[in-house]
Amino acid sequence: MVSSGLPNGVSGFVERHKIFEYLMDPRHPEGAGKARFFLGLGFRLEEWHVLANALLRVSEEGLVANVVESIHGSKYIIDGPLHAPDGQTVLVRTVWIREARHRRARLVTAYPRTESIHGDQRA
């Protein structure tokens, strides 16, 4: 079943270092492509909170594609539109984890999607 956003009572948060040292670090071995993507949309490291807030909006308004339970907590995979500073709106997948002892879900990663939320290939 597809639902909208993180479940009731769960809010998300984005750690500063996740933006600085991963999503917008063009030298990061796994994050370099993501950095090119986000920087290309007009997000800027010195205004990292703009990207953090845009990703939080995805966690609130996007569609939950999957929930994976583990001993570490609940992982939420959420797809939704990301509103960029350059005026574009693009589809991204975000991954959040809510550890068993916390009420808030922390951002794990985010990356572009090449298909629509409903599974149709984009033109």
Tell me what the structure shows.
The chain has 123 residues and is of the alpha+beta class. The protein has one domain. The chain has helices at 16-23, 32-40, 48-61, and strands at residues 3-4, 11-13, 63-70, 73-83, 89-99, 104-112. Strands 1-3-4-5-6-2 form a six-stranded mixed sheet, covered by helices on one side. The longest helix has 14 residues, at 48-61.
Shape: globular
Q: State the separation between the terminal residues, measured CA to CA.
A: 26 Å
Low-confidence stretches: 118-123
How many helices in DSSP terms?
3
Q: Report the mean per-residue pLDDT as an integer.
A: 90
Q: Any idea how many domains? A: 1
Most strands sheet? 6 strands, mixed
* Helix-strand makeup class: alpha+beta
Please count the beta strands (DSSP E, at least 2 residues each): 6
Strand order of the largest sheet: 1-3-4-5-6-2
What percentage of amino acids are in beta strands?
35-45%
The rounded Rg comes to 14 Å
| Helix-strand pattern | EEHHHEEEE
Portion of residues within helices: 25-40%
Topology, pairings included?
Blueprint: E1 3-4, E2 11-13, H1 16-23, H2 32-40, H3 48-61, E3 63-70, E4 73-83, E5 89-99, E6 104-112
Parallel strand pairs: 2-6
Antiparallel strand pairs: 1-3, 3-4, 4-5, 5-6
